[in-house]
Specification:
The chain is α/β, with parallel strands linked by helices. It has a single domain, classed as TIM Barrel (Alpha-Beta Barrel), CATH 3.20.20. The protein contains 17 helices and nine strands. Strands 1, 2, 3, 4, 5, 6, 7, 8 and 9 form a nine-stranded parallel β-sheet that branches. Strand 5, helix 10 and strand 6 form a beta-alpha-beta unit. Helix 16 runs antiparallel to helix 17. The chain is globular and about 65 Å long.
């Protein structure tokens, strides 16, 4: 295995294309906001919250998602949303992340005092404030290092109930007799309509649409109308798929949701999860699926730590399908999923990968740069190419500094 110094992995410019804002708070901020807003927490110390809520290992995805109830509860005001987004950007830049695409479900954070539009605008203000501070640094303003950039991804949820905060409760009250799958689809469609307005009329860099939440039993097809509308309005599309369900979920993401990227995609090669009667049919289905994903350069957003936490059967990184993704030359990029809930950083994710997989310098560089190339960059294509070139130049200067050779 190739070993790299942690200092090198921290210094290289990185992306995080799959990271939930409401899963990436600072714990002291969570505690302070909870105290200010009179919100009850299981503990009011960092040690207590890490023991009871934000664990090293979770029983399953359902337990993993419980922590989001606490974080979402304190993110119900414009001020708290702006603060969380601002700190999030600073924390990323502090470990060398130059481009982020934080995602969140705006409808979870809206209430009688703050609209969905204002939720998105508040997050943007926090990110924009951090971006201006970061990019005013001498080394960046002078062109020696690449700028810090971001794009916002808005998430719809596969399912929700009255316990969810925000406008979901109002939707349930307004449409009590509507079938649940239609209600979920209506909420997603309403979100995309809001995204169109906020991007086009308010100038907020919303770059993509996502579908998150419990995967099994809540098919992506329920949200087809929302994805069709997003597609027709030139939003990029990503879908949580193949995390808690099998290859057929990834197939739905591609065929029903026009997915440009796949969130997690962990079970893409698992024929045992395909609902076909015999082994040969299942193997054929899986092969045709991954070959289509590879040929179309649909990028998989790989979240190693998160997968190990929510899928105990993996046991170690050596059982993760990322090694097969490498062998089959799929397009993928490493991501954190959540900085707090998964207790990780992009540097941690890269260190986990390079210490357990065969990733020589040239391949590592390709994986990192491909994150920038497959980002949903908000500016025009030529600006994106210039930005990627700046990143490559800086990456190579860091390689030279640490004596990394690609041969």
């Amino acid at each position: 295995m190739n070993k790299y110094k942690r200092e090198f992995l921290t210094a290289i410019p990185k992306t995080d294309l799959h990271v939930h804002l409401d899963g990436s708070l600072r714990i002291p901020t969570l505690i302070e906001l909870a105290n200010d807003q009179k919100i009850k927490l299981p503990s009011y110390t960092e040690e207590g919250l890490r023991e009871l809520v934000f664990k090293e290992q979770y029983a399953d995805l359902v337990e993993f998602l419980l922590g989001f109830q606490l974080t979402a509860a304190v993110m119900q005001t414009s001020e708290s949303l702006e603060r969380v987004a601002y700190e999030f950007a600073l924390d990323n830049f502090a470990e060398g992340v130059r481009y982020v695409e934080p995602r969140f479900a705006p409808q979870q954070h809206s209430n009688a005092s703050i609209s969905v539009e204002d939720v998105i605008a508040s997050v943007d203000r926090g990110l924009q404030k951090a971006k201006k501070e970061i990019n005013s640094r001498k080394e960046i303003a002078g062109g020696d290092e690449p700028k810090f950039e971001y794009g916002i991804i808005c998430c719809a949820l596969r399912m929700f109930n009255r316990e969810f905060p925000g406008s979901y409760r109002r939707l349930i009250d307004m449409h009590q007799h509507m079938p649940k799958e239609d209600l979920y689809g209506l909420a997603a469609l309403d979100l995309v309509q809001t995204m169109i307005y906020v991007r086009n009329e308010m100038g907020v860099p919303i770059v993509g649409f996502d579908l998150a939440g419990a995967e099994m039993g809540y098919p992506a097809g329920d949200h087809k109308k929302a994805y069709d509308l997003a597609h027709k309005n030139f939003f990029n599309k990503t879908v949580h798929a193949g995390e808690a369900y099998g290859p057929e979920s990834i197939f739905q993401a591609i065929t029903d949701c026009h997915a440009d990227r796949i969130g997690h995609g962990t079970h893409i090669f698992d024929d045992s999860m395909v609902g076909l009667p015999n082994k040969d049919e299942r193997l054929k289905y899986v092969k045709e699926l991954w070959q289509y994903v590879a040929d179309s350069r649909i990028t998989v957003e790989v979240c190693l730590t998160s997968n190990l936490q929510t899928m105990p059967k993996l046991k170690s990184i050596k059982n993760h399908p990322v090694a097969e993704m490498l062998d089959k030359r799929l397009s993928f990029t490493f991501c954190t999923d959540n900085r707090l809930v998964s207790n990780t950083t992009m540097t941690d994710e890269l260190e986990l990968a390079v210490n357990n997989l065969s990733i020589p310098p040239r391949k590592l560089k390709d994986l990192i740069i491909y994150g920038f190339k497959r980002s949903f960059f908000s500016e025009d294509y030529l600006a994106k190419r210039r930005y990627v070139r700046d990143v490559i130049n800086y990456y190579e200067s860091v390689e030279a500094k640490y004596g990394i050779t690609e041969s």
